Amino acid sequence: MDIHGIVFDIDHFAVHDGPGIRTVVYLKGCPLRCIWCHSPESHIKDPQLLRIADRCKNCEVCINEKCVNQATVMSGRSVSVSEIVSEVVQNKIFFDSSGGGVTLSGGEILYQPEFSLSLLEQFQSCGIHTAVETSGMGKWEWLRDISRCTDIFYYDIKILDNDKHIIYTGTGNELILQNLRKLAEHRHSKCITLRVPLIPAYNDSPDDIEAVYRLACELNISGVHLLRYNISAPAKYQWLGVPYKPGNLERQSDAYIDMLCKIAPREISVVVF
Fold first, then answer.
1. Domain residue ranges of the chain, discontinuous segments joined by +
2. CATH code for residues 4-272
3. What pTM was estimated for this model as a whole?
4. What is the Cα–Cα distance from 210 to 26, expressed in whole angstroms?
5. How confident is the model over 217-230, as pLDDT tens digits?
6. 73-108 burial by CB neighbour count: b if 16+ within 10 A, else e?
């Protein structure tokens, strides 16, 4: 059966979501509600109409939800596994020459587990390297099944303080950490990299990052990615007509990022994006 899912973007020739040249498939839908999320259009699974106010000319000529000024954009579309594989496999020559492949991201891939699993199975059957970006927020059985056909896991860690995790993401992190520990036991820890989106004044203190380093050491995970704050995030909230709760935040300075890297234990390899 050709399974259908909802995606909101496919990024060809990406270079920051795994080794080599990659295609990133962004799935729609996420169980978390991180107040700083840089892709709020990924929250709900269903397609939704975005309105980009600064493109609107108030011409009042909106035909079938399409705008000649591209002030309205439909985010999300239903697509089959075979359609995506057919599109992606055309880039295989670039994957093979660069050591690249396909990365599934979101949203949250565990929000569409059957679709994610079928995609990954098809990619690997085509000899394409696979990676996933996940918060781990989903049933362990889904993550376990997906792990069979995933070469690299980029596992998001928002913040390790559970009380703050509830405030900032809408849910606790117990299941996330349980799944991470199970994954580290189920698969070799070398295939797992922890990723931390650094949000100024929320989760980027030395204490917060040292806690992530300790977790990595505990699970024998050697790779940690620190993702600098994305200053473009607030614009997307305007498209959805909702407030951006963190307000105006400044990206971390080079000196501050350097300090966070230097406090890492010797056995941890830190990469900054």
1. 4-272
2. 3.20.20.70
3. 0.93
4. 30
5. 999 999 999 999 99
6. bebbeebebeebbeebbebbebbeeeebbbbbbbbb
